[in-house]
Amino acid sequence: MRPASTVPADYVIPADVLEITGPDPTPIWLNQMGGLTVRFQLDGPDAETESGRRWGYLKRNPLPNTEDLELEATKLRWLDGRHPAPRVVDHLRRDVEGAEVEYLVTEALPGVNAVDPSRAADANTTIIAIAHGLRMLHGIPVDDCPWTWSTEDRLGLTSTEAVSRLGPAPSVDRLVVCHGDPCAPNTLIGDDGEFVANVDMQRLGVADRWADLAVATMSFGWNYSDYDEALFWGAYGTAPDIERIRYYRALWDAE
Length: 255
Known about the structure:
The termini are close together. The longest helix is centred in the middle third of the chain and has 15 residues, at 123-137. The strands form three sheets. A five-stranded antiparallel β-sheet has the order 1-2-3-5-4, with helices on both faces. It has a three-stranded antiparallel β-sheet with strand order 6-8-9. Strands 7-10 form a two-stranded antiparallel ribbon. It is an alpha+beta fold. The protein has helices at residues 15-21, 69-79, 117-120, 123-137, 151-155, 160-166, 209-223, 229-236, 242-254; strands at residues 26-30, 36-41, 55-62, 88-96, 99-107, 112-113, 175-178, 187-189, 195-198, 205-208. The chain is globular and about 50 Å long. It is built from nine helices and ten strands.
């Protein structure tokens, strides 16, 4: 699991971010590895009306970093026309006071994060929308996808001790194009409660569908207080596989 992240009220946005976004971006996410996400106006501060403004998000990561924004940009461009996800505006690197920093700029999409209070208050509708989004993503032909997120790849990056504790991996049920980080916050939901898009696609790759399904449903317990998980399985179109769920949740926790 990645560390929880908050933006302190007194946080000062770095000057290099302001050079890209202009004044007054809104900080959205700050993690313990120094990664920052802000929302800002893509067309500058001179747009006359709210409806005429274009909004975007900028991710800033100091390097080296476990997140590869160049890879995420490549995957988002590949997804364009295949699955709803943010459109890439720019990817760049800069030297900031002797250290290399990486940036990814994407267009903002309509809707809100699936753990926004407005969506958490209607958790059953929200988890149905999450299921619809994953089913749509999992319908992309795997032969088109040049990346993998296989169990073998993941185990190669996991400690020997953790691998031993996990035990044998289950057989593959169905290979699909997986999100790779299918936790609830990485789905956008519209005002009508319907699926809009998936975000944070760096780990996207071909894997058993249960690698996504196990973690998506595990994340519901972190984000919602009252929901019926059976609605997710009904909307996705399968019954829960307890053994595969157990394994892929344990693998996620071991990484």
